[in-house]
Amino acid sequence: MFGIFYFTSVVVEETSSIEGDTTNYNPIEQFDQVSEIAGPNAQLTEITAKRVKFNGTLDLEAEYKPGPEVTFKFFQEVPAPEDAPPPGAIRNSDGQWYEKITITASKPGTWGHVTSNSGGVQSEYQYVNLGLKKDVSSPRNSKPGEEINTPQCQFKDFWNEAIKQGATPDAVSDITYDEDGYTFELNTQNTQLKLEFDQNCQLIKEEEDIPTKNESPTNAAKRILKEQGDLEKLEHLEEMEKRIEALK
Residue 28 — φ and ψ, nearest 5°? Predict the structure, then answer.
């Protein structure tokens, strides 16, 4: 006779309380706590901060959805599982196995829900997220990413540059740190801005756009505005072009 056993419970998963002010959470200043939770052998590969304020922090207590959050990605080397194939059996594998570790900083006190089915037993439970939630993947034989240094750049400095380029301080941005450096992205109705910074926090300036062969300066300007997503200026330029054409 076969049956599915089902039960529910309320538990606290591997979550930790956030140190400091959760309404002004600074991922850079709080990184030591996150790194400690990840473990002594964990290597950082990426940080993604969603909805960063102009002062470089996140209001994790915000009521709007989707709310601010920060995802920290790590990996660590682990022994091969007992049923792992021998080295050489898998193409491009050196025999080393890894666990991917993800720690997410989000609104404390929220409820999560998990349903799983293993061996014919279905289980379901709810958990309370205290603010920092740790997830560890099953072992894998491919490296989850390239390790990067402990972050040193303050997000407010990226915002200062963005404001110089037209961003308004009432908006929120997304900021990513990975092996290529830092990427600042802002998308609002009036502003679409993407800035890149190197590991030393310096702005990476794009090469100056020049007209392609047989391209008029006006068409070059329209192409650049379209690539930058500045639709308001593009529309203004096209309107001016129509007026000039009407006067001929």
Answer: -75, -50
Residue-wise pLDDT tens for the chain (248 aa)?
A: 333 333 344 444 689 999 999 999 999 999 999 999 999 999 999 999 999 999 999 999 999 999 999 999 999 999 988 877 776 666 656 678 999 999 999 999 888 777 777 667 777 878 888 999 999 999 988 899 999 999 999 999 999 999 999 999 999 999 999 999 999 999 998 889 999 999 999 999 865 444 555 567 777 777 777 766 677 787 877 887 777 777 76
Residues 181 and 230 in one domain: no
**Which residue shows structure tokens 């473990």?**
39
Q: Are residues 175 and 238 in the same domain?
A: no
Parallel, antiparallel, or unpaired: how do β-strands 43-52 and 15-17 relate?
Answer: unpaired
Identify whether 81 is part of a domain: yes
> Nearest 5°: CA angle at 34, between 156 and 127?
115
Give the Cα separation of 166 and 19 in Å (integer).
Answer: 34
User: Do residue 221 and residue 193 come from a single domain?
Assistant: no
